[in-house]
Amino acid sequence: MSTPRDIQAAVYAAAGARDxxxxxxxxxxxxxxxxxxxxxxxxxxxxxxxxxxxxAAMYGTWAEAKVDIHxxxxxxxxxxxxxxxxxxxxxxxxxxxxxxxEMGEFEDGKMKSLKIHYFDAAQVAERA
Length: 128
Hints:
Largest sheet: 6 strands, mixed
Shape: globular
Order of helices and strands: HHEEHEEEEH
Strand order of the largest sheet: 2-1-6-5-4-3
Distance between the termini: 41 Å
Mean pLDDT: 95
Number of strands: 6
Oligomer: single chain
């Protein structure tokens, strides 16, 4: 049996490769991705294609966005990814970075939810 950390790492690897079929195979039927209400890609993204739809919205907000994963840790029911997201606004202004922690919750060997926590969501919204 895979641990939450293993499953979360597999979700990120598949998403990075844009292998959305693989991503969906790792998600619970009732999967929900949560983004802060203040963000331009805010809300509760529901369904097995939620990660793909949210990623398209988030990447579409920026001229360029780059994710650097630093670590993934986990226990019996949760895993957390620590990453840096570097975003370049479409208005040509200077790129900026945010530390982001993404908490996955697991049930029946699948990722059931993913909650995205930005260090400063207000800055992200302001620069979008």
